[in-house]
Specification:
Elements lengths: L8 E9 L2 E10 L3 E6 L10 H4 L2 H4 L2 E6 L22 H14 L6 E5 L1 H12 L6 E5 L21 H11 L7 H12 L5 H12 L16 E6 L7 H11 L3 E4 L6 H4 L1 H18 L1
Parallel strand pairs: 3-4, 3-5, 5-6, 6-7, 7-8
Antiparallel strand pairs: 1-2, 2-4
């Protein structure tokens, strides 16, 4: 019998976020420059499994992926299980900074997708000196409320199935079925109201349109990669943001809203040159 053991290490840490202790789960692999990966709304760090397992990446980077509170293996703060959840920009930034500080990371790279792609803009504005570089996947300054998020958390609707359906519609039809199924499964396992609560940040509180000009890219470079098959963050949305910032965006053909998860082998061909550029810049 053959067995393949992945090089990923998973652990828990008790981290204070906004004055409250949280039990946070994270996974990591590799050594070198810290690369903190930020998962999408309603999902968890398993989305970055291919990056954690890629020997070329982990030879140069210490890849670290934490589950946000209420997501994956990270619990809600004590006494808040039944609270109505709505993610804000302030709390999201606080989670990321608390994790980086608790882990003692010195000028890490932060890479996020979807809500993670949006929050890197807030990091670029508020804490550019804390990061070596930022990478935004499916990153735009704003996304209109093109659907009723209440369907994601209703007592008469199976939350896991409807959340999985939303995620399925955002993936490119040519992405490998095995990866699409796993991406969808992560959404089907999410806690009640978590996906909906994350979208409060994505669609309302995290609107960055009025803040774009406050980013100083001389303090921290920003790289944008966007899949072409995405009606949530369209290529033109990322291109509009890039034009405002005076930078380029890489549009990835035949990729959807979850490039690192739905088609990781192809995504890595776009990511690796970016990581090499960041490494060489020092």
């Amino acid at each position: 019998m053959s067995i393949r053991i992945e090089p990923i290490l998973g652990r828990y840490a008790h981290i204070d976020i906004e004055g409250v202790s949280h039990r946070i789960y994270w996974e990591e692999a590799g050594q070198g420059i810290p690369l903190v990966c930020l998962h999408t709304a309603g999902s968890d760090g398993r989305q970055f499994r291919a990056i954690l397992n890629d020997p070329e990446v982990t030879a140069q980077y210490r890849v670290m992926v934490f589950d946000m509170p209420r997501h994956g293996k990270s619990s809600p703060a004590p006494g808040t299980v039944d609270d109505e959840y709505a993610l804000t920009s302030e709390t999201y930034v606080a989670q990321i900074m608390a994790f980086c500080q608790a882990m003692g990371l010195e000028r890490p790279v932060a890479m996020g997708c979807s809500i993670g792609g949006r929050i890197v803009l807030h990091l670029a504005k508020r804490h550019p000196e804390a990061f070596r570089a930022l990478i935004g996947l499916q990153c735009a300054a704003h996304v209109p409320r093109y659907y009723d998020a209440d369907w994601l958390d209703r007592p008469d609707v199976h939350g896991g199935r409807v959340c999985g359906s939303f995620a399925d519609g955002l993936m490119a039809p040519n992405s490998p079925l095995t990866h699409k199924d796993e991406t969808r499964w992560h959404y089907m396992q999410g806690g009640p109201g978590v996906f909906k609560g994350d979208l409060f940040f994505y669609q309302i509180d995290g609107d960055f349109r009025a803040e774009i000009d406050k980013i100083d890219l001389s303090k921290c470079p920003l790289h944008l990669l966007t899949g072409e098959y995405d009606f949530s963050c369209r290529p033109e949305d990322s291109q509009e943001l890039a034009a405002r910032l005076g930078i380029e965006v890489t549009v990835m053909p035949k990729m959807g809203h979850f490039p690192m998860s739905e088609n990781p082998e192809v995504f890595l061909t776009y990511l690796k040159p970016v990581l090499e550029e960041i490494r060489k810049a020092g």
